[in-house]
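FORM 12-B: Structure-to-Sequence Request
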């Protein structure tokens, strides 16, 4: 939106009495714009109407009905892409914090169950992964990172150190509304940087990461291999500089 459009919008709002315009006492060449009393009243009325409309839709639904409505909304947002984002849209990756594991377990299981309804539910295994992580806390053998956009957790990665300078990519998941915009790559890079110093090889099961296509791993330096005995497909990456 250019300056001329913004100026026309502000002039229209001013003529309707929705905003007040005053001179900035610290910079006489600038003007301060804020909602007028009338504008605030109208905004509050709109908020109440929106809340009433939402309550009319979901207020009489059961917990199951609300969950299904939320999942359907997420599916629509996924199909539309990233249009639903607000704020600066930046992705921040950091260590998982106290109390966030429960949300990650819930979302991971929900997303997997929706995308792969015929597969067994992974919730018990995800819970076990985090429970085992607790036994090695402080040893830096495990690395769990979460990605946030606009303050919300939209992805997570879990890398566990194995024997012989090897680590396994246990979990990597990105919310449907945040896919194809680089969140998975940022999570993977942050987790690799957080691996124990002695880890030189990272393994990832192709079957265990169904949401990510082969080219995602290829562009991040993995190559596809098969273990001789089981025929299981593995992505393998050598961690440089270690």
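FORM 12-B RESPONSE
SEQUENCE OUT:
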């Amino acid at each position: 939106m250019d300056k001329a459009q913004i100026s026309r919008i502000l002039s229209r709002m001013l003529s309707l009495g929705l905003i007040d315009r005053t001179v900035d006492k610290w910079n006489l060449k600038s003007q301060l714009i804020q909602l007028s009393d009338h504008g605030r009243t109208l905004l509050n009325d709109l908020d109440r109407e929106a809340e009433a409309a939402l309550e009319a839709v979901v207020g009489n639904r059961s917990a199951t009905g609300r969950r299904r409505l939320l999942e359907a909304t997420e599916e629509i947002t996924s199909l539309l892409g990233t249009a639903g984002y607000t704020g600066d849209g930046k992705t921040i990756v950091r260590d998982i914090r106290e109390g966030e594991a429960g949300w990650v377990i819930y979302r991971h299981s929900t997303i997997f169950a929706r995308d792969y309804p015929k597969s067994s539910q992974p919730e018990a295994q995800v819970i076990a992964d985090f429970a085992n992580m607790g036994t090695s806390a402080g040893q830096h053998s495990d690395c769990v990172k979460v990605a946030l956009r606009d303050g919300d957790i939209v992805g997570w990665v879990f890398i566990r150190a194995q024997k012989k300078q090897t680590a396994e990519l246990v979990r990597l998941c990105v919310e449907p509304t945040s896919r194809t915009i680089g969140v998975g790559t940022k999570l993977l890079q942050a987790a690799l940087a957080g691996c124990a110093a002695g880890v030189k090889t990272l393994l990832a099961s192709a079957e265990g990461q169904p949401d990510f296509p082969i080219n995602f791993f290829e562009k991040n330096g993995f190559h596809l291999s098969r273990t001789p005995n089981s025929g299981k497909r593995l992505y393998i990456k050598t961690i440089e500089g270690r």
